[in-house]
Design brief:
The protein has 746 residues and is of the alpha+beta class. It is 26% helix and 27% strand. It contains 14 helices and 34 strands. The strands form seven sheets. Strands 10, 11, 14, 15, 16, 17, 20, 21, 22 and 23 form a ten-stranded mixed β-sheet that branches. Helix 11 runs antiparallel to helix 12. The protein binds beta-D-glucopyranose (BGC).
Length: 746
């Protein structure tokens, strides 16, 4: 049904009469843009922002609710509030996010199936008997927030059998729900409410609440102000000069306006979310912090991994990385939760996949995302766009806008191979890999098409490449320019190789022998071309040497036979040249410490890891970060923000260091032949600069624990292998042991 209410937010309601006592009842619902379902005055379910975010041109998801408890014999009132959301609100990318990317009309679809005590089964649906009235929600927008006028609330709108005044007929919706399917989205729920915030009175006289942690969600508050009072909240992630500051949100207004009707109320927004630590409050005569709560929402996936060490800064870094994921796993993996973006940037997701699969239980969440990736990829003929879903608005010429990248881009499009492989390695689910394999293969084939067009040598020379995004190694030293110095075709070809190799491994796991051979063969071709194009026979690079160029070569094994140490030395030299600091971006950073530790330079990995000055992971920690920043220099040493064009304090990409912490620092590694941690290689790589570390992973096969500590310069530790699992233990002194389930002390 559609209320045909234009831009007016609607409430819709319908009656359901039951001629007997219900013993089982389910509601199936979907509403556009966003909906909240109510039954007899109670909100149904505990999810927010339904029906979630996917390309609504391709498919829509309905949610299923058990409503037995809420129904009774006789008349029942079913209702829904509707908001704009991703479907029709202001959303997208570039200077002017648009309205109506997927459609312009509100609509709602619901089916209620009830079993009565006497065994009768009844089915009700949204039909022309439903009625609508204007909602107290006056405006709603993912980026801009919400306006709610409690004076316009209609008491009993979803509970009174007798229809309150103001309701009128609905129409049949023109929206097509034909691609309606059961959900793949993981429920978005309130997972935490933060303790009472600190109230700051700023030099400008503003009342600002500090929640002490950057979160995604909203503020809920107690209001008992006189009728007509306008309470106005603004959200942001940092103070500047001790005052409220929000310029880095760009065009996102991120605000909430509430007009009181004079009654006492617990207030929250319905159809938006914010990324914030600070909230400025206006319109309240006396701001009492205990009246406000920071409400954290996210896709409700369970944490599975934890790491603790002797160093509180390292622990804070782990915490920040974890929160970067909590905050950005909101139905899809987003780049950031606060500015006018919040898009499923595929490169960011690719980079974090391996870390995420240890920190949190990811299969369902990533499966949903990869389903979306597959849909987009089919639409774009093999290309995986910069972000998924890719809102498609027709441009002036009527052509659909391809999120600026018609040929795909290394790392970003490689989410097609990196994410499925991370899920397989960590959880060992062959059925998921089988479903996602076509996405992997289609992406490699799409690169191969470009390669063929350039003579089929095994190089990838096309695409709008972003390369080592946000690296700090530019010759001109411009740290605001996001393009790094590593050669773009070099990076692209290295990832062509990586994607082909992951596809070959997946084919092997799935028993697709022909494909396995095909992609192994392709890997050999790419490697030969890569070495010829970019390396001298002595192992030196023909392109300008950067840290990232060396990291990719080492991590992917792309160096001339026997010349690994030449590349390693070049990397160490580049690090020394930066005063023992990193200068890598999106391509190099996820693999930097792993490439060092795995190739005999564990001490250098620790040096980078323990750096405290810019650029380093702990610099952010020392500057008070509670999540991971987008840029190494998001905030300058004097506390000022380095720029506002593209600068978020909640981007998870560099949190990928946590993968190194699990695999190298603590030592837990999955084994390809027995994925999902049925088998593991346990190889702790301690360093005396850290006196102890311990980790726990609730893997798909059971709980692993690893601890090590230095006592009087001697290394001690213990390892727990879960039931029915096996591990190979490799200690720094060269000791090797095969372990079965149990706890072992060394
Ligand atoms: C996003 C990134 C993204 C990048 C690529 C940014 O605006 O926030 O994280 O990957 O653009 O262009």
């Amino acid at each position: 049904i559609s209320p045909a209410c234009g831009s007016v937010h609607p409430l819709v309601r319908g009656m359901v009469s039951l001629p007997g006592r219900p013993v089982a009842a389910r509601a199936y619902a979907c509403g556009l843009g966003l909906y909240e379902l109510y039954l007899n005055g109670e909100r149904v379910g505990d999810e927010y922002l339904t029906p979630y975010y996917n390309d609504y041109h391709f498919w829509m998801q309905y949610q299923t609710y058990d409503v037995t408890r809420l129904l009774h014999e006789g008349d029942n009132v079913l209702g829904a509030m509707l908001g704009n959301g991703w479907y029709k609100g202001r959303f997208g990318f570039e200077a002017n996010p648009r309205h109506g990317l997927f459609g312009d009309n509100f609509s709602f679809l619901c089916e209620l199936r009830v079993t009565l005590e006497d065994g009768r089964e009844l089915c009700f649906g949204t039909d022309r008997s439903w009625r609508w009235a204007p909602s107290p929600v006056l405006e709603s927008s993912i980026y801009d927030g919400e306006v709610y006028d409690a004076r316009l609330a209609i008491p009993g709108w979803c509970s009174d059998v007798c229809e309150p005044a103001g309701f009128r007929p609905v129409e049949r919706a023109e929206e097509s729900y034909t691609h309606l399917t059961e959900r793949l989205s993981v429920p978005v729920r309130i997972t935490e409410k933060l303790p009472v915030p600190k109230l700051i009175r700023t030099p400008k006289g503003e009342n600002v609440l500090d929640f002490g942690q950057e979160i995604t969600g909203w503020v809920e508050f107690h209001c008992s102000a006189p009728a007509g009072t306008r309470v106005y909240l603004q959200y942001d992630e940092i103070l500047q000069d001790d005052c409220f500051y929000r310029d880095n949100l760009r065009s996102a207004k991120a605000e909430y306006t509430y007009f009181s009707d004079g009654s006492t109320a617990r207030v929250r927004p319905h159809f938006t979310f914010y990324g914030f630590r600070y909230v400025k409050v206006e319109g309240v005569s006396q701001v009492r912090p205990e009246d406000f709560a920071g409400v954290h929402i996210r896709s409700d996936i369970d944490p599975t991994g934890s790491i603790e060490t002797a160093d509180s800064r390292v622990n804070q870094l782990f915490h920040n990385a974890m929160w970067g994921q909590f905050d950005n796993f909101l139905d899809i993996p987003t780049d950031c939760p606060q500015r006018d973006e919040r898009l499923g940037w595929t490169g960011d997701a690719a980079i974090i996949s391996a870390t995420a699969c240890k920190n949190l239980y990811m299969p369902a969440f990533f499966h949903h995302f990869l389903h979306n990736v597959g849909e987009e990829q089919q639409y774009y003929k093999g290309v995986v766009p910069f972000f998924v879903p890719a809102p498609k608005a027709p441009d002036e010429a009527g052509a659909f806008w391809l999120s600026g990248n018609p040929d795909g881009c290394a790392i970003w499009s490689d989410v097609a191979t990196m994410m499925p492989w991370a899920v397989y390695e960590n959880y060992g689910d062959l059925s998921l890999l089988r479903e996602e394999y076509p996405v992997m293969k289609a992406w490699v084939e799409r690169i191969r098409q470009d390669d063929q067009a350039d003579g089929g040598r095994g190089l990838w020379l096309r695409g709008r490449q972003l390369g080592d995004w946000l690296a700090l190694d530019r010759e001109d030293g411009d740290t605001q320019n996001p393009f790094g110095a590593t050669s773009l075709p070099y990076t692209a070809t290295a990832f062509y190789y990586y994607s082909a190799s992951l596809t070959a491994k997946a084919a092997k796991a799935l028993g697709y022998g022909e494909d396995q051979q095909e992609y192994q063969g392709l890997c050999e071709t790419i490697k030969a071309a890569f070495l010829e194009e970019y390396f001298q026979a002595d192992g030196t690079l023909k392109i300008p040497v950067t840290q990232t160029a060396c990291v990719l070569s080492l991590f992917f094994g792309l160096y001339p036979e026997g010349k690994r140490d030449v590349v390693l030395e070049a990397l160490k030299e580049r690090i020394r040249a930066r005063g023992n600091h990193l200068d890598t971006g999106f391509c190099g950073t996820p693999f930097l410490c792993r490439a060092l530790s795995d190739n005999g330079a564990n001490d250098v990995a620790y040096t980078l890891f323990f750096n405290e000055d810019f650029p380093s992971w702990l610099y952010e920690v020392n500057m008070g970060a509670t999540t991971v920043w987008e840029r190494w220099n998001s905030i300058l040493p004097d506390g000022s923000i380095s720029g506002t064009g593209m600068n978020s304090l909640n981007h998870y990409a560099y949190g990928s260091i946590v993968d190194w912490m699990y695999r190298n620092l603590c030592g837990l590694n999955p084994v390809e032949e027995a994925p999902g941690f049925k088998k593991a290689v346990i190889r702790p790589m301690p360093d005396a600069r850290l006196s102890w570390a311990k980790m726990k992973l609730d893997s798909a096969a059971g709980t692993y624990r690893i601890e090590w500590k230095y006592v009087d310069g001697q290394l001690h530790g213990s390892v727990t292998v879960p039931f029915d699992c096996q591990a190979q233990l490799l200690l720094p002194d060269g000791t090797q042991r095969q372990l079965t389930a149990g706890t072992y002390v060394f």
